[in-house]
Amino acid sequence: MKGRPELYTSYGQDMAFLNTRPKRAWTGGLVVLALLVPFLITDDLLQLLATGFVAAIGAIGLNIVTGYAGQVSLGHAFFLAIGAYTGAALSGSETGRVIGFGITSLPIWLLASGLVAAFFGVLVAPVAVRLRGLYLAIVTLGLVFLGEHVFREWTSLTGGPGVGRPAAIPELFGVRLDRDNAMFTAAQQLYLLMFVLLVIFGVLARNLVRSRVGRAFAAVRDRDLAASVIGVDLTKYKVLAFAVSSFYAGVAGALLFVVNGFFDPGSFSLLLSVQYIAMVLIGGAGTISGAIMGALFITLLPRITRELPAVLPFISGDATGTFTVFQLEAVLYGVLIIVFLIVEPRGLFGIWVRVRNYWRTWPFSY
Amino acid sequence: MDEFLQSLIRGLGTGSIYSLLALGFVIIYKSTQVISFAQPAFMLAGAVLVSYLAPQVSFFGAVVLAAAMIAVLALGVERTVLRPMVGKPVFVVAIITIGVDVVIRVVTNAFIGLDVRQVGDPWGLTTVSFLGAEVQQRYLVMIGTTAVVTIALFAFFRYSRIGLAMRAVAYDQEVALAQGISVGSVFALSWALAGGLAALAGVFVATGAGVDQQLWIVALKALPAIILGGLESLGGAVVGGLAVGIVESLFGTYQGDFAPWLGPNFALVAPYALMLLVLLVRPYGLFGKREVERL
């Protein structure tokens, strides 16, 4: 097949992990670039990117249940919260104010956070199996409010509203990654940690969705009745989708505040769920790379709008002006969601596909 | 007993607010099969408008004017943002309404500022004696107004020509189109109606305590109401709204005594817990229609 890279002679070839040569080149290039970045840019940008990578893990999770399996969930903030508190409680140290078990080893609390969140996902799934479309969206929204209440009241776990508790402690093989050491700064270490985790979870998700399970998810999304007629077990796959998605949310939740080091129960509001929905939709529903693009975009958005007052003088940079960056930022979420859904429903991924297709046949692109 | 009656009236009062909002949700759902998450923003905008208009044109004039203006705003939103999305998956359209909600709310918040704005209602927190219990006047007004509005709406759908057209569209859009009904204007009208109802509800929420930036959260309580009632049922929306109000109020009064482990302020989330319980038993709500699916 030399010289004819796009001729597939088997289904397996077509579904291969990186099925074309440009894809391999691009992915390799991006990974190398991402590994070089920590030595090129400043620490505060690194922290932002690290948070973006964590958000990407969460967005991939939401994309599995919403983008691939078609089960609309506005309850992602709830699962993120469960992961965050499991991680923080397991790795934190017992103080008089908050509980903690002192298990600081990262793989242990990360896995535990994911599993506990997945457990709650499985608990919620039976409701999802019985409900259609928007009923499910509203139920998951209710979950966010119930969760907020529990986390507000359970102060020995969460530290209470406005006060909060320290986030999980990232310790790998006895090295605290959130402290500077001889070779790297804390931001560089956390950036690399989050990047490696994103690659691991991204590859896992990609492998899941191109397998039998992924095809079953897509069948359920496109027409669940038709899927059940051809032998897809709806209950099993809906429960599975929720479990996997919540696992990702739990992992992301546990890592989300590691960079900042502190969080309070007010963080897990409906707004957080909407942000993740925005990541998935702006990035491109039903694609892993889209979810990553969307997550990075939404995470970097505040940073970009902060720079705007310098360029556009009618926007006020501080919180007291008539038209502030904070308002602009909030409006932008809304406007971006609307514009993307109307103009480019496939999101950033769709734009990339169009650019790619233009250049693929260049200069005969029509 | 007095305590019970008081909390019942309070529940019916807040419940009638939820009913108004729920009616808006259901009207939009019936004609377009979409849940509009923009209702909270319309509600907030309505209350803020009244707080600005009331000093000029008296409270009651301001309410009518604000409801009309929000109706026009909602109609405009439907025409510009939602119309291009006709025929797209309902989930996508629902998310667009979240975007609309965020935009309108941020703009409205700029007009609220950090203070609490008063809507200038004549009732305040004054109480009257009702069947031997001291209840706040405003709750009785809410119940009365909602009853009148609900009856007017039902009469509109039942007897007017446009109401008939709306019912036809809810029943089957294509057949309605074939009969010469302008489905587009029915969509627009449903949004306008829902906007007006939301504005009215917003004013009621703001009586007593005033308008602040957190007011919109109240509108989301109408979601358990419509789920309880069933998304397709106008009657269900009213009943669901009242039920949510009563449950919330009774929990607020008694939960501290019989279930303190649920924590203070559980009343605020009790509607969501109720919704989960009802849905486990009846996945289509109490009055919703069970859909027969075909391949």
Explain the overall architecture.
The complex is a heterodimer of chains A (366) and B (295). Chain A is an all-alpha fold and 366 residues long. Chain A has one domain (42-360): ABC transporter involved in vitamin B12 uptake, BtuC, CATH 1.10.3470. Chain A has helices spanning 11-14, 21-36, 43-68, 76-91, 106-130, 133-153, 155-158, 186-209, 212-222, 224-229, 234-256, 270-283, 288-311, 325-343, 347-360; strands spanning 165-166, 171-172, 175-176, 262-263. In chain A, the strands form two sheets. Chain A has a two-stranded antiparallel ribbon. In chain A, a hairpin with a 2-residue loop joins strand 2 (171-172) and strand 3. In chain A, 46% of the residues are buried. The model of chain A has no long low-confidence stretch (mean pLDDT 84). Chain B has 295 residues and is mostly helical. Chain B has a single domain, classed as ABC transporter involved in vitamin B12 uptake, BtuC. Helix content of chain B is 73%, strand content 3%. Chain B has twelve helices and two strands; from the N terminus they run ααααββαααααααα. Chain B has helices spanning 2-32, 39-57, 59-82, 90-112, 137-159, 161-171, 173-178, 183-206, 217-220, 222-229, 234-258, 266-281; strands at 127-130, 133-136. In chain B, strands 1-2 form a two-stranded antiparallel ribbon. In chain B, strand 1 and strand 2 (133-136) form a beta hairpin. In chain B, helix 10 packs across helix 11 (234-258). The mean pLDDT of chain B is 86. The chains are: A mainly alpha (366), B mainly alpha (295). The interface between A and B is large, with 43 and 46 residues.
